[in-house]
Amino acid sequence: MTALTVVIVEDDERFRAAFSAMVAQAPDMLLAGTAADLPQGLQLLQSVRPDVLLVDLGLPSGSGIELIRFAHDHLPQTDVMVVTVFGDEPHVMASLEAGATGYLLKDSRAEDLVEQIRALRAGGSPISPVIARQLLLRLAPEPQPTAADDALLSPQERQVLTLSAKGFNFEEIARMLNVSRHTVMTYVKRSYRKLQVHSKTEAIYEARKLGLVRD
Description:
- The protein has 215 residues and is α/β, with parallel strands linked by helices.
- A five-stranded parallel β-sheet has the order 2-1-3-6-7, with helices on both faces. A two-stranded antiparallel sheet has the order 4-5.
- It contains eleven helices and seven strands.
- The radius of gyration is 21 Å and the shape is elongated.
- It has two domains: 4-122, Rossmann fold (3-Layer(aba) Sandwich), CATH 3.40.50; 129-209, Orthogonal Bundle (Arc Repressor Mutant, subunit A), CATH 1.10.10.
């Protein structure tokens, strides 16, 4: 069986070394090259034409999205997986729209990387759970508020409570809504005061009872 050729474009030396070691140790993979910035990455893609591209988004000389777009337009045989710290919706959607078919956060287990590459090449789309939930949430229809709902809780307060009821923590909610954690906590405190409760569990219970939050 021919080994999968993998190119890694990552500016952080520690991550680049760790990813390279994982790929190099896999019996069915061949590390075809690494790059630390956008120009090196473009040059490498043009010369190697790999089966798989692992790419970070925050490169010192530009965005990894340019590499994703180049691979999509000129290397149709190359599967692209983003491995990054950016989990916000704008970065995720821009990467997928540019042609990425996998999206992993750097807090994913490094030892799982090889299996994720195999899954990608087999036609799958490996995505970190928090990103998958974010995409599902984006596609889910929003409940239509009534006039009474609007009078009691603001749309932002209802949205934060709805996400809390789905199991997201405040840090995750802040990233999804592209606001600070402080802003999320402000919405939470206002909700507690309006619902006359003192905890997240009580707030969700009361909001469900009033029909303000729907699972």
